[in-house]
Design a protein that fits this description.
Length: 222
């Protein structure tokens, strides 16, 4: 079994818990309102805008040249993706300027803050826990959600879905790149660290959707 396969197997429980979150279940089966989708994009903006700085931080702190090279390559791929989210928000009638000048919700800020802490205080390899969760879930969710919402909103093109589309099936190359990279780690302590951080990031990322679930329930009851 490769390390990637072991990572997938040993984080299965956390991944299954994510897919039981009410908003995730409801959105994939029934769709979501435009307001709920815009709320999701707002939180996405506030963590995606930190991806490049976090990658740069990890690259600056590691002495592992193979890992550092991979991070630099990944930085080039991820640069500016937060701008796509603002474009999507504007395309669907949201206030992109207000989102850009604001800040994420509590769960989003906690996840981002922990990411900086983990890279600086635990290990630069902690970045890979975040990468595993965000890239892996994007491939599983993005296209399904985009297809569902596009139909629900009555749209004929992908206006408003550039971020989701870029992180759906089109992002398979990133997952393949990640798989190849982490399979190169043979040190069990590094493997265990990445595994442990992945478990934490599943919970932290899931907390964003739990918060959005509560907000959506309040809005539906109003």
């Amino acid at each position: 079994m490769t390390f990637y396969d072991r990572l997938q197997a040993e984080t299965a429980q956390e991944r299954e818990a994510f897919f039981r979150i009410p908003l995730v279940v409801r959105s994939l089966s029934q769709g979501a309102s435009r307001e709920a989708y815009l709320a999701f994009l707002e939180q996405a903006y506030h963590h995606v805008r930190h991806t490049f700085p976090l990658l740069a931080l990890a690259a600056s702190l590691t002495t592992d040249e193979r890992y550092q090279d991979a991070l630099v390559e990944y930085m080039e791929e991820e640069r500016g993706h937060e701008k796509w989210i603002l474009d999507d928000i504007a395309a669907l009638g949201g206030n992109a300027a207000a989102v850009a000048s604001g800040e994420g919700g509590a769960a989003c800020r906690i996840m981002v803050g922990y990411a900086y802490y983990a890279i600086e205080r635990i290990s630069p390899y902690a970045m890979l826990g975040s990468t595993h969760v965000l890239e892996g879930l994007s491939v599983l969710l993005a296209d399904r959600l985009a297809d569902k919402l596009k139909s629900q909103f009555g749209l004929v093109d992908d206006t408003g879905f550039s971020y989701l589309r870029s992180h759906g099936s089109l992002d398979q190359e990133h997952v393949a790149f990640f798989r190849t990279m982490i399979n190169g780690f043979t040190d069990r302590s590094v493997q265990d660290l990445i595994n442990g951080q992945s478990k934490i990031f599943y919970r932290l990322y899931g907390a964003i959707f739990h918060d959005l679930s509560e907000e959506t329930d309040v809005a539906r009851a109003a």
